[in-house]
Specification:
The chain is mainly alpha-helical. The chain contains two helices and no strands. It is elongated, with a radius of gyration of 22 Å. The termini are far apart.
C-alpha cells in the first residue's frame, strides 16, 4: 500500500509489520477483554448446524438413517 508522500512498501513488509503489531498487542494482553473471548463463534456454530440439517434432509430423502 503506497503512501502518496513516502516510499512504496511491499506486501511482505506490510504483512511483517502487521504480524509484529499483533504479537506486541498479544503480549500486552490487549486481546484478553474482547467481547466473547474464549467462547465459540455463534456464526460458525449456526453454519455447521445448517449444513448438518441439510445433510440429514438429503439422507432422509434417500431413506438412509440420519447421523
Amino acid at each position: 500500500m503506497p503512501d502518496v508522500d513516502g516510499p512504496e512498501i511491499s506486501e511482505k513488509a506490510w504483512q511483517i509489520l502487521t504480524e509484529c503489531k499483533i504479537q506486541a498487542a498479544t503480549e500486552e494482553g490487549q486481546f484478553l477483554d474482547l467481547p466473547g473471548f474464549g467462547k465459540p463463534l455463534a456464526s460458525i456454530d449456526e453454519q455447521v448446524e445448517a449444513e448438518l440439517q441439510e445433510f440429514r434432509a438429503k439422507l432422509a430423502a434417500l431413506g438412509t438413517p440420519h447421523v
